[in-house]
Design goal:
The chain is an all-alpha fold. Helices cover 87% and strands 0% of the residues. 0% of the residues are buried. The mean pLDDT is 83.
Length: 60
C-alpha cells in the first residue's frame, strides 16, 4: 500500500476544493460590487453632488 500517494491525492483534492470556493466568493463579490456601483450612480447622489457644487461657489 502506498499511503504517501493517497495523502498527496487527498491534499490535492482539498486544495482544489478550497480554490473553487475562493473563486466562487470572488465571483459573488464582483457581482455585489457591480450592483453597488449602480446605486452610487443614482439620481439622488447626482443631485446631492450638484448641491455641493453650488455651495462651493460661496467659498471661493
Amino acid at each position: 500500500m502506498d499511503n504517501k500517494g493517497q495523502a498527496s491525492a487527498e491534499f490535492i483534492l482539498l486544495f482544489g476544493g478550497i480554490v473553487v470556493v475562493v473563486l466562487l466568493a470572488i465571483h459573488l463579490y464582483n457581482n455585489y460590487m457591480g450592483d453597488l456601483s449602480g446605486e452610487i450612480a443614482s439620481k439622488e447622489v447626482k443631485e446631492f453632488n450638484n448641491e455641493l457644487n453650488n455651495l462651493g461657489k460661496y467659498f471661493k
